[in-house]
Design a protein that fits this description.
The longest helix has 18 residues. The strands form two sheets. Strands 1, 2, 3, 4, 5, 6, 7 and 8 form an eight-stranded antiparallel β-sheet that branches. A two-stranded antiparallel sheet has the order 9-10. The radius of gyration is 24 Å and the shape is elongated. The protein starts with a helix and ends with a strand. The protein is built from six helices and ten strands. It is about 35% helix and about 35% strand.
Length: about 170
């Protein structure tokens, strides 16, 4: 009530007082751990579509964390240079109250034909997300497409290579 006396010269009406109390109570409930855990339980359920097609992002909204896992179609690849390639990637994101966040994403792959293990880690810190300002670090050895915009998805190339015996993917070790 002291805040309103200083900020607003006209006193709050009984309806406004009720409305602000209700909104404050609802906000406290929405920020509570049990409420956020219940939302996470519902949204974090994994389905066969997540496993094979879309991938899944697992959220922990109370701690402002998330983990992203790709679908199985991106984790199993085949190309003419590396042969069969199991490819594992995971990303972890930690958000903060001021909308800043950081993301760490390790990637691992092994080519059975060329017998090469490749690994890299990407780290990114968004220090001003409203202006898309960030700092990014990356290190390791990895296989990349010659065209840096990756016009051909590895899954599509896998299908072309195994079914039509056509290889459209042009890759190099970076």
């Amino acid at each position: 009530s002291n805040y309103w006396k200083i900020t607003r010269p006209v006193p709050l009406t009984p309806d406004e007082i009720y409305d602000y109390r209700l909104k404050d109570s609802l906000q406290l409930v929405k920020e509570s751990k049990p409420y956020q855990d219940s939302l996470d339980r519902k949204s974090n359920k994994i389905t066969p579509i997540n496993i094979f097609v879309t991938g899944k992002t697992i959220h922990n909204n109370y701690h402002k964390r998330s983990w992203n896992l790709p679908p199985l179609t991106q984790m199993l690849q085949y190309n003419t240079v590396e042969g069969f390639v199991p490819y594992f990637r995971l990303s972890y994101t930690q958000r903060f109250d001021d909308y800043k966040f950081y993301r760490i994403a390790p990637e691992l792959r092994y080519g059975f034909s060329n017998e090469r293990f490749n690994a890299r880690i990407n780290a990114q810190y968004y220090y001003n997300p409203l202006k898309f300002a960030s700092v990014r670090f990356s290190g390791g050895r990895f296989v990349e497409q010659l065209n840096e915009h990756s016009p051909l998805e590895p899954f599509d190339n896998t299908v072309y290579t195994l079914v039509a015996e056509k290889n459209y993917l042009k890759i190099y070790e970076k």
